[in-house]
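Subject: for your reference before the review

Hello V.,

The reviewers asked for a structural picture of the protein, and I figured it would be easier to keep everything in one thread rather than splitting it across files. Below is the amino acid sequence we used in the manuscript, unchanged from the supplementary table.
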Amino acid sequence: MTEEEGHPRRGLDPEFTITHAVYCGRCGYCLYSLPYRGICPECGQEYNANAVEMKGIFKQDDVELPVGDGLGFCVFAMFAILLISVSIEPFESGKFFIGLIMGAMGLVFAVRTYARLQEFIRFQHIAKRIRKQERD
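And here is what came back from the structure prediction:
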């Protein structure tokens, strides 16, 4: 910000700027020497690197491989297939509908697993970019 806007120039003042390696949560851009709150110059995501809030900041521990969601999908899908196939001959509506409900739950887990897997892969790309930046 400029003095015309009523704020002092912040430069590398540790009170107003990031003085250590902090990375954008969307693209992995190093936010060192930028204000604690702002917009990433690379991707345009809003960030807040204040230690209390940490919004839009890459944190390696934020995302894990969605093993539990994938397992949940497999279990629900397996039981849905089993119940529906068993209920067809002779038709048993109770098992059939429980199978449909299990199938719907399996679908929910599948969508959730897909979304979290995409996020996990994106974070892996960001981590790789950060490691490359730190080597250079």
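For the response letter, the relevant points are probably these. The chain has two domains: 1-58, 62-135. Confidence is low (pLDDT under 50) at residues 1-14.

Happy to draft the paragraph if you're swamped.

O.
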